Amino acid sequence: MQVLKFGGTSVANATNISLVKQIVSTNTASKKIVVVSALGGVTDLLLRTAAAAAEQDKSYIELLQKIEQRHLETIKELLPIAIQSAVLSRVKSELNVLETLLEGAFLIGEITPKLSDKIVSYGELLSSYIISEYFIAENLKAVYQDSRSLIKTDTVYGKASVDFRETDQRCTAFFNGSQPDIVVMGGFIASSHDGDATTLGRGGSDYSAAIIAAAVNAEALLIWTDVSGMYTANPKVVKQAKAIPHISYEEAMELSHFGAKVLYAPTIQPVLSKGISIVIKNTFDPDAEGTLITKSKNEKGKTVRGISHIGGIALLSLEGPGMVGIPGTSKRFFEVLSQEDISVVLITQASSEHSICVGISALDVDRAVASVNGAFAYEIERQKIKPVIAEKELAVIALVGDNMKQHQGLSGKMFSTLGRNNVNIRVIAQGASERNISAVISEADVKKALNVLHEVFFEENIKQLNLFVMGVGNVGAKFLKQIQQQKAYLRTQLKLNLRVIGISNSRTMAFDEQGIDLENWADVLAKGEKTDSEQFLGNITRLNYRNSIFVDNTASAAVAANYANYLSKSISVVTCNKIACSSEYDAYENLKFLARQYNAPFLFETNVGAGLPIIDTLKHLIASGDVILKIQAVLSGSLNFVFNNFDQNSTFHDIVKQAQEEGFTEPDPKIDLSGIDVMRKILILARESGHRLEIEDIENKSFLPQESLDTDNNTDFFASLIKHEASFQKMYAEAIAADSKLKYVAQFENGKASVGLQHIPKDHDFYNLEGSDNIVLFFTERYPDQPMIIKGAGAGADVTASGIFADIIRIGNF
Ligand code: ADP
Ligand code: ASP
Ligand code: MG
């Protein structure tokens, strides 16, 4: 004999019920007991209808009509016309009784738990009857059985306790008799010894099936639902979750106790004692393996088997000096809660005995506070104990696994992962069985917490990085293209999953929680909403994704001014915008501080030498104990381009214009030509070498005539270059005469930095610097005479984009 239980979604409508029939008829067991839930959503509807009636709200009538319609439609779709009318008339007459009950509640404006159970039992009564008639109509040897006459309980309405002795006797008597191969009954419902309808708690159809399976010593209990088994985490919250092929009773119980709704927690107990295995299967994918739950231990080497969570939790803390050394305080505390029928999900007590803290359902919190304060009124008045403190909007998350106790470091890994992702932990509890480690966190952090924990414990270290990109011009567009090209490689080779969730330019911004389609980002952006930088940050904060990275591809001071707000929300910042790192030292230092404080890297490799690994190399030199003695560098791709191309056959104006047109200068070329850009770069290198320097401390021997420096727009600037052509030609001629080339050099030594045009002789490392290349010489204690040299293209959208990309990868490996 096998017991097959089908949940609400599996019997939600005629189409689904026909799949159920398919499964039942292909099952090879000679005898089958089919336990069904109410049509999906009907229990909720019944409860809403009852609540409306009790509040004397006439909308209960419409709700009742909806319930009626669901059932009548299902019958009409399922059953051949010939037998429809008999079934319809019985169902209608049941619905009439239901209507009378609801009218009663409406008239007196009240509903008792007993009446509520009577009303709600109609869900399973009707579904089981309809399904049995359908089976019979499809020529299955089936019969309907009212579960209320088999399962007997006490009168704790809403969540009654089963009288197993009587239930077992009744089941044995009934199933020993001769009856057709298939018995169809409703789950969830039972009756008291007086014959009143009772229910076994929400989700209780699983439990009914287990009670029957144990009573008849079934070979197996099959739970058919809408997912392919018990997953490593709720698949609706964690996309990467996978079905667990084999799990022990205890693990399954622990997972369901902590919120894995796929199995109602009390279900395990009756079958565990009889050693009956449970299989969880998917009605909509019957070939999927599902989850087998048995006594046997879980697979070798597996520690954490699943992660679950319960939302809607409140913490109740009782504390005060009067608790220390006074026996019985906790006993009284729990007694009060138990008298109020409030169940405790989790308990922690500090060893100082100074405080005790429990997690309960938020629905119970007001009652709990009032009764605990009442019980301790005497101590509270004398200030021996403080009034109880309640915190709401919390959730419990739990790691579960039988083998967890044999492994050190799991809780460390759990809490450091949460900490790194800025999930604040309110309370920690570890069961004495060590089968579970749980923590109370804010409800708003649940999705992030489950996903990061899942990533760390189950996903072969595939790390998800969530990017929010501001600025999609030259560099930004190249960057998005590179991500798109490399996505597959990063996933397979580096175990990084990159998703661009938000993009923005100065006009519009767009978000897609699933990740923006990078083939069509321009269209997506064009259809976006108006850019609002506050809202951009607001959206990232609201989404609360782990590993969120803000990427700034702009040159905007306003955008840079916002970095502190990002970092202090644990959002990493990657930028090619030099403004933040070259503004006041205190601001730069504050960003570095926030990055450490909030575990959110702040990376700006492209601030110096575009994609060349200059800052990263400097960091590694310093981290390994080396000391920077001197930096000499050509750091302006634009100026190098200009001086490499300028000669007696061209004009300075034309070369600068060409550099601007080819994208080698900032939009405002004066920023490059005046040396400001180079000053910012050497400033950043000096700061990264550990020196406290401001931009004013840098000496700038500008080669530009004062008139050019004084212009305030591009037109005037270019005009001044034409006017002063002779002075540029003179500079060139002097260099040739000295057998040298002109290079704009930045230097840092003995705490002092300077920038300026220099004659570079033939034997110098800088002499053969081509095109827009950059070069940096690091003279350090370990490289005192022959410097460490980094050289290569130092400007251009492609290399800058790849430098940003490299920073993203660094965060991925962080
Ligand atoms: P049924 O109506 O068939 O009893 P339920 O809705 O009670 O189905 O339970 C199935 C649901 O449980 C799934 O759709 C899923 O959203 C939820 N769930 C929560 N945690 C888990 C988990 N760890 N594994 C599988 N499902 C889970
Ligand atoms: N129909 C009941 C509920 O929704 C029981 C069940 O489906 O398991 O809670
Ligand atoms: Mg269920």
Q: Could you describe the 3D structure shown?
A:
By secondary structure, the protein is of the alpha/beta class. It contains 31 helices and 30 strands. α11 crosses α12. The structure holds adenosine-5'-diphosphate, aspartic acid and magnesium ion (MG). The site of magnesium ion (MG) has 4 residues, from loops.
Number of strands: 30
Question: Bound compounds, please?
Answer: adenosine-5'-diphosphate, aspartic acid, magnesium ion
Structural class: alpha/beta
Indicate the low-confidence ranges by residue numbers: none
Fraction of helical residues: 40-55%
How far apart are the first and last residues' alpha carbons, in Å?
55 Å
Main sheet properties = 8 strands, mixed
> What is Rg?
36 Å
Give the strand order, joined by hyphens, for the main sheet: 3-5-2-1-8-10-11-9
Counting DSSP H or I runs of 4 or more residues, the number of helices is 31
Mean pLDDT: 93
Q: Choose one word for the global shape.
A: elongated
Strand content: 15-25%
Task: List the topology elements.
Layout lengths: L1 E5 L7 H13 L5 E5 L5 H13 L4 H20 L2 H28 L4 H8 L1 H16 L4 E3 L7 E2 L10 H13 L5 E5 L2 E4 L4 E3 L5 H11 L4 E6 L20 E3 H9 L10 H7 L2 E6 L8 E4 L11 E14 L9 H11 L4 E6 L5 E7 L3 H11 L1 H5 L7 E12 L9 H11 L4 E6 L5 E7 L3 H13 L4 E8 L3 H20 L2 E9 L3 E4 L9 H6 L2 E2 L2 H11 L4 E5 L4 H4 L2 H5 L4 E4 L3 H4 L2 H13 L4 E2 L10 H10 L4 E7 L2 H9 L6 H10 L8 H4 L2 H13 L10 E3 L4 H4 L4 H10 L1 H13 L2 E10 L2 E10 L11 E8 L7 E6 L3 H16 L2
Parallel strand pairs: 1-2, 1-8, 2-5, 3-5, 4-6, 8-10, 9-11, 18-19, 18-22, 22-23, 23-24, 26-28
Antiparallel strand pairs: 6-7, 10-11, 12-14, 12-15, 13-14, 15-17, 16-17, 19-20, 20-21, 25-27, 25-29, 27-28, 29-30
Bound molecules: adenosine-5'-diphosphate, aspartic acid and magnesium ion (MG).
Aspartic acid binds next to helix 8.
